[in-house]
């Protein structure tokens, strides 16, 4: 792009591919470096190629550029280290990594590395075509949230590379039947303990696990087995490390104010150049790395002016407490991404009741298509921590979520935040002694998977470790040597498979046409009964969840149709560590209304368990359907045979005509 156009779009806030202009780029004349630093007195490129000498390669401030510095250095090779030496507005020299750098040294070193993203041979063409065609179709979303550095490590505790993760994590995801993987931030960050949520290199895939092409290979491997990839992304704030964006030219160039709780700097969303930087960064990961979605961290901290301020009430110009600039940024971000990547997941981690987070921008929303349901998570975990024999007092914690379930497009998350800082692991939160906790865990996950909304669970939860997550070491895979943990993993594997297979659990996830209470009010026995519905009635499921360790025989529930109902999932199965309480495989609907349903069935209900029923058409109906299908097939065959005969006659006639024509002289056409 011509510089004048690039400058204009950059300062206008609409340059979606600003990464193609700014940063360091190989050309026929050498490497071109460009940096925006309008208040700097001088800027130069330093590196191992010039002994880090600030006088060797000065950059020139470009005319009418609004503060863009540029220089071209010949004969540089891929892999060279570099930084910018910036003489700030007050005369102090600082050394900064490239804000648009695509590769960095392994921490604690901080230099940018000259690199090229070209050269990787993608093998996901079929995946890209399919996701484009299916952009508007409903799909199962079952997310496995991963911290790459601690999912699994080498024996000496060092991290696996992107290539090794492609060989180990990707087959595991496939085997466990997850549909999506969400990577905690893999953009470059200096401190492991931030888990990636305090960034310095927004365009650089962290070098902890290898080169950028390694990440491409990992994402490519996911796509080749049908796994979508979501990246955690942090556009709200950045860390104050000296080599990063902080005080880049001596002024608050990228930042507005310091975040009162985290000691980081909030981005200045009032500046078009900052919007260009952030929106083009989001675009970059879709464009260059083929990702399928972003999960935007800390949305509440962005949209509320008073977030983290205990003794100060800040207002916008209209008297409200929402940041008009941040709201505008989020709307522009989502509009841009969905325009160019309509298949994308744009999920907001928004922890309040801010309205219309996952509504379209033209309907007054923020434009995301999914939002984390933090209320469901808090209420459900609180409920599961209580004594099952006292849960009748807290029944509303289960049912309240359905009062607002369709106000947004929700993801139900059991994320990394719930298994750190003394909160205990998920299984350890469950009420009761060792054995009982596993029964409760199966209850928790069955309620989560059968409830309306997409699903997200943090790595390790699937085999129920008792230790909290520790970012500096591997998950405790040795726990699978113990029966209860292995059985829990088997349960999660089957539950994932069942969820993906049953359309009723995800086709109509965000509306009442996909969910119906059958009995929401049985607080005395702590039992829920509801119906999940797909596009076709034969896909519907009847779900009963018993939150108490009591059994029931001949338990009556209402059903909507006169069918035989087949047991299709039982969390109390002995192979999962359940009691094995006898539950009939089928139950025939009786002409006895119950729970406002026209029919009912009677069941044996196992303790602390969920059971799922699916209607089966009667034999008479099956025969009628089969007869109709056979008749239709015969008719179709007859029509097809008739068409074939007509076609043969036509072909024969056409062939004879062609033969006759070929024997005649060809008339010349007058020009």
TrEMBL record:
The active site is at residues 297, 349. Residues 623-671 are annotated as: Disordered. SUPFAM superfamilies: (Trans)glycosidases, E set domains, Glycosyl hydrolase domain. Residues 145-484 form the Glycosyl hydrolase family 13 catalytic domain. CDD domains: AmyAc_Glg_BE, E_set_GBE_prok_N. The keyword Glycosyltransferase applies. It catalyses: Transfers a segment of a (1->4)-alpha-D-glucan chain to a primary hydroxy group in a similar glucan chain. Keywords: Carbohydrate metabolism, Glycogen biosynthesis, Glycogen metabolism, Glycosyltransferase, Transferase. GO terms for biological process: glycogen biosynthetic process. Belongs to the glycosyl hydrolase 13 family. GlgB subfamily. PANTHER family: 1,4-ALPHA-GLUCAN-BRANCHING ENZYME. Catalyzes the formation of the alpha-1,6-glucosidic linkages in glycogen by scission of a 1,4-alpha-linked oligosaccharide from growing alpha-1,4-glucan chains and the subsequent attachment of the oligosaccharide to the alpha-1,6 position. This is 1,4-alpha-glucan branching enzyme GlgB. It comes from Eubacterium callanderi. The lineage of its organism: Bacteria, Bacillati, Bacillota, Clostridia, Eubacteriales.
């Amino acid at each position: 792009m011509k510089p004048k156009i690039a400058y204009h779009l950059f300062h206008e806030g609409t340059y979606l591919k600003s990464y193609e202009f700014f940063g360091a780029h190989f050309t026929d004349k050498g490497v071109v470096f460009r940096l925006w630093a309008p208040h700097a007195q001088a800027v130069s490129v330093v590196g191992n190629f010039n002994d880090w000498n600030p006088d060797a390669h000065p950059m020139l401030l470009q005319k009418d550029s609004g503060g863009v510095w540029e220089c071209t250095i010949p004969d540089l090779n891929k892999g060279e280290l570099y930084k910018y030496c910036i003489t700030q507005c007050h005369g102090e020299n600082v050394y900064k990594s490239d804000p648009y750098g695509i590769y960095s040294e392994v921490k604690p070193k901080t230099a940018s590395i000259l690199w090229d993203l070209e050269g990787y041979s993608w093998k996901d063409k079929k995946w890209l075509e399919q996701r484009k065609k299916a952009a508007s179709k409903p799909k199962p979303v079952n997310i496995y949230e991963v911290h790459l550095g601690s999912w699994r490590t080498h024996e000496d505790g060092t991290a696996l590379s992107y290539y090794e993760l492609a060989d180990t994590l990707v087959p595991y995801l496939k085997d466990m039947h997850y549909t999506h993987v969400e990577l905690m931030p893999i953009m470059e960050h200096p401190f492991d303990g931030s888990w990636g949520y305090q960034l310095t290199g927004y365009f650089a895939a962290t070098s902890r696990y290898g080169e950028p092409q390694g990440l491409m290979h990992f994402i490519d491997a996911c796509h080749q087995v049908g796994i979508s990839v979501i990246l955690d992304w942090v556009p709200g704030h950045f860390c104050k490390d000296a080599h990063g964006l902080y005080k880049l030219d001596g002024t608050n160039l990228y930042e507005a104010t310091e975040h009162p709780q985290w000691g980081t700097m909030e981005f200045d969303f009032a500046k078009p150049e900052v919007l260009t930087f952030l929106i083009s960064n989001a675009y970059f990961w879709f464009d260059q790395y083929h990702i399928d979605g972003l999960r935007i961290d800390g949305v509440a901290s962005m949209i509320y002016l008073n977030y983290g301020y205990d003794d100060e009430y800040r207002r916008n110009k209209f008297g409200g407490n929402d940041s008009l600039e941040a709201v505008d940024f989020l709307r522009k971000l989502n509009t841009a991404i969905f325009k160019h990547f309509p298949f994308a997941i744009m999920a907001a981690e928004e922890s309040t009741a801010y309205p219309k987070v996952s509504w379209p921008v033209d309907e007054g929303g923020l434009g995301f298509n999914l939002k984390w349901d933090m209320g469901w998570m808090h209420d459900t975990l609180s409920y599961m921590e209580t004594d099952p024999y006292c849960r009748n007092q807290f029944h509303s914690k289960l049912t309240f979520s359905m009062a607002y379930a369709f106000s947004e497009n929700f993801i139900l998350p059991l994320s990394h935040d719930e298994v750190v800082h003394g909160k205990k692991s998920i299984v350890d939160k469950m009420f009761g002694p060792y054995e009982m906790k596993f029964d409760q865990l199966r209850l928790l996950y069955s309620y989560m998977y059968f409830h309306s909304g997409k699903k997200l669970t943090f790595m390790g939860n699937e085999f129920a470790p008792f230790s909290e997550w520790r970012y500096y070491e591997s998950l405790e895979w040795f726990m699978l040597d113990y029966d209860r943990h292995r059985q829990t993993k088997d349960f999660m594997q089957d539950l994932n498979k069942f969820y993906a297979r049953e359309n009723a659990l995800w086709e109509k996830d965000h509306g009442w046409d996909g969910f119906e209470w059958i009995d929401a009010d049985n607080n005395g026995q702590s039992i829920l009964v509801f119906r999940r519905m797909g596009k076709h009635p034969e896909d519907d499921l009847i779900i009963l969840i018993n939150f108490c360790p009591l059994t029931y025989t001949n338990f009556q529930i209402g059903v909507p149709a006169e069918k035989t109902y087949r047991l299709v999932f039982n969390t109390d199965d002995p192979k999962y560590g359940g009691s094995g309480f006898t539950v009939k495989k089928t139950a025939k609907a009786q002409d006895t209304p119950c729970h406002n349903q026209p029919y009912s069935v009677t069941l044996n209900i196992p303790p602390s368990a969920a059971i799922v029923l699916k209607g089966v058409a009667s034999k008479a109906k099956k025969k009628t359907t089969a007869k109709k299908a056979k008749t239709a097939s015969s008719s179709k065959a007859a029509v097809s045979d008739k068409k074939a005969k007509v076609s043969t006659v036509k072909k024969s006639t056409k062939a004879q005509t062609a033969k006759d024509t070929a024997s005649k002289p060809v008339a010349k056409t007058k020009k």
